[in-house]
Amino acid sequence: MMWDFDEIIPREGTGSIKYDLRREIFGNPDVIPMWVADMDFRTPDFILKALETRLAHGIMGYTFRTPEYFSSIATWVLISHGWKIENDWICFSPGIVPALNLCTLAFTRPGDSIIVQPPVYTPFFSAVESHGRNLVINPLREQDGKWVMDFEGLESMVSEKTKMIILSNPHNPVGRAWTEEELRQLAGICLRNNVLILSDEIHSDLVLPGNRHMPVAGLSDEIAEITVTCMAPSKTFNLAGLSTSSVIISNPVLRKYFSNKIEHLHVGYGNIFGTVASVAAYSEGREWLGELLEYIDKNVNLVMDRCRQSIPGIIPVRPEATYMIWLDCRKLGMKGPELSDFFINKAGIGLNEGSQFGHGGEGFMRMNIAAPRSVVEKAMDRLAAAVSGIRQK
């Protein structure tokens, strides 16, 4: 490999949420933190070099996003996902979570209903409820060890007040890379009922070998007309701290609504380094990403094998995408705070407890494995010892 993903980079003392807030979040400063979705891998050298070059200029005044910024995104999306987008479809947002909230404000009104499909990324819920919209839950279903959308349930709960569905594509936390057939079925329901699709595709580049990502808006022009797509280089290239993402909207009316909201709130400038990093990532990052995905896939195999061999009480759901693994811990007989306490104080690992992702998450834990293999191995050793301790009682 050209890049060293085995390198251990101390992150303490950098204001890292993942590391420096362990005592506040877990009550234990010594846990291995494998929760918040950033990676413990060094940001790629070609991005750091681009940032260093810009910093060396010495003036950090007001800037705008150049044509290169937009064309690099459009080229990346076309080559990676086969979706041809125009530069002027791309709107800026200072992050995906802000984009979810901005879209709620731009496209719906207080009292409107918005559907989410849990267990799902927690900010989906607050993006609805924080703005006086009605949250409608259509839970995913477990089917033969795999999580699927409940299309019958979805169609039955759509009403005249339903204005939008927020989709996690690929899905966080269950790791699904939705198939074209599944997305077409979802889109068909939305087309028939005039429901907008807000598709969070921040993990679109993190599709593991044997799977593919399908942008919802890339299915057809008709579907694109009712779809707003959120993408970013932040998860892919470990750039979350640079607060730079894209909202891609082909429908000019929807794009105007969104752009007006950004302008009225004065959050559209972004920052110099987010722009520079985005251009470098999308212009030079393909080979690095290929090696990253190979490495993460081996970490997935490590976790799957260790659970099968020595931790029979935990059944990991193999992810098709993302660098998180959804751990089925229901055989341990613990839920909620008790399960979380077991991982923190018995296993010494800080994960996300499943119930925070909503209906269907109880008894599960989300584990971030975007870390050097030695760290993942250490975590699995701790977990195996802790589970063994339960069995011996």
What's the total helix number?
Answer: 15
- Determine the mean pLDDT: 97
Number of domains: 2
- Main sheet overview: 7 strands, mixed
CATH architectural grouping of the largest domain:
3-Layer(aba) Sandwich
Helicity level, as a percent range? 40-55%
> Any low-confidence stretches, pLDDT <50, length ≥5?
none
What is the CATH class of the largest domain?
Answer: Alpha Beta
- The CATH topology of the largest domain, please? Aspartate Aminotransferase, domain 2
Strand order of the largest sheet: 2-10-9-8-7-3-4
Strand content: 5-15%
Query: Using DSSP, what is the number of strands?
Result: 15
Shape: globular
Order of helices and strands: HHEHHEHEHEEEHEHEHEHEHHHEEHEEEH
Structural class of the helix and strand makeup?
alpha/beta
CATH superfamily of the largest domain, by name, is Type I PLP-dependent aspartate aminotransferase-like (Major domain)
The span between the termini is: 45 Å
C-alpha Rg, in Å? Answer: 21 Å
Sum this structure up briefly.
With 393 residues, the protein is of the alpha/beta class. Helix content is 43%, strand content 15%.
Brief descriptors of the model:
single chain; 393 residues; alpha/beta; Aspartate Aminotransferase, domain 1; Aspartate Aminotransferase, domain 2; 15 strands
